[in-house]
Amino acid sequence: MPFKVAYLGPEGTYTHQAAIQQFGNGDAELVPQPTIKSCFSLLEDEEVDFSVVPFENSTNGQVALAYDLICEWMVRNPNSGLRVVYEQFVAIHHCVLTHSTDMSKVKKIYTHPQAWGQVTNWLFNHPHIEKIDTSSTSKAAEIAAEMGDGHAAISSEYASKVHNVPILHRNVENVKDNTTRFLVLSKHHQVELPQKYITLLAFTVEHEDPGALVKALQVLTDKKINLTSITSRPSIETPWHYIFFIEFWIDQEKDKFEQVVEDFSKQCLSSVILGRFARSERYYGGN
């Protein structure tokens, strides 16, 4: 029986490409969803085995909605069982899809909010076009196909084929090595970790304690643990308080994971392990 994978749809999104990269087109039944939140909901209700969600972009930074949903479904509910088990990286090459033969004829252009910041240079040259948000880049292509002449989408080459919309301009992204990172979540799937792997952890510290964040991070420094990223999102529960997200390497040959987490947690108000997973080869530019 094939396992089910939820992803932000419709067919042709970059998240769809990430799902194909991770699971292929064989054993997995790929289930498109209208929103990122529905990907979490289906996984929580065990209607799918995995969910693939966008997490951050190399040009435009964190996908804020994904972080906030992780806070809602995993940080504030640490017993949910949802965990990150894999990561994927997709090269993002935006195309302008339209049935119009010239940009001067285009009045409205559609795309996902995350994409606008990745194509600002190209947009600067077309100030007359009204920008409209959509739930995904593939949905934008679908709308451009339905609306016809005078409408365009910023989307992928794959979405052009799926929705049968011609490509007028290719590679309109600001940065040519533009890449989005995706997380693969599961509730029950167990992965065999390599000797060296990434840990994703969320935590809070005492807001009024000077140096509280430094004290927590010092634990990793003292143990010679390499921190690869740190970011934060508003806690929502208290104004101007934050949930911090960190990622760091664990080398099973020298690092005792449980002890690292225990010592780190002693310096925090709360901490939640969001996942442990192998670094994707695509991080290093692999195919």
UniProtKB/TrEMBL annotation:
Domain ACT: 201-279
Keywords for the protein's UniProt record, in alphabetical order: Amino-acid biosynthesis, Aromatic amino acid biosynthesis, Lyase, Phenylalanine biosynthesis
Occurrences of domain Prephenate dehydratase (ranges): 4-187
Alphabetized Pfam families for the sequence: ACT (PF01842), PDT (PF00800)
GO molecular-function terms, A-Z: prephenate dehydratase activity
PROSITE patterns: ACT, PREPHENATE_DEHYDR_3
Pathway in which the depicted protein is active: Amino-acid biosynthesis; L-phenylalanine biosynthesis; phenylpyruvate from prephenate: step 1/1
GO biological process: L-phenylalanine biosynthetic process
GO cellular component, one term: cytoplasm
Listed EC numbers: 4.2.1.51
InterPro entries for the chain: ACT-like_dom_sf (IPR045865), ACT_dom (IPR002912), Chor_mutase/pphenate_deHydtase (IPR008242), Preph_deHydtase (IPR001086)
Name by which UniProt lists this protein: prephenate dehydratase
Organism field: Cyberlindnera jadinii (strain ATCC 18201 / CBS 1600 / BCRC 20928 / JCM 3617 / NBRC 0987 / NRRL Y-1542) (Torula yeast)
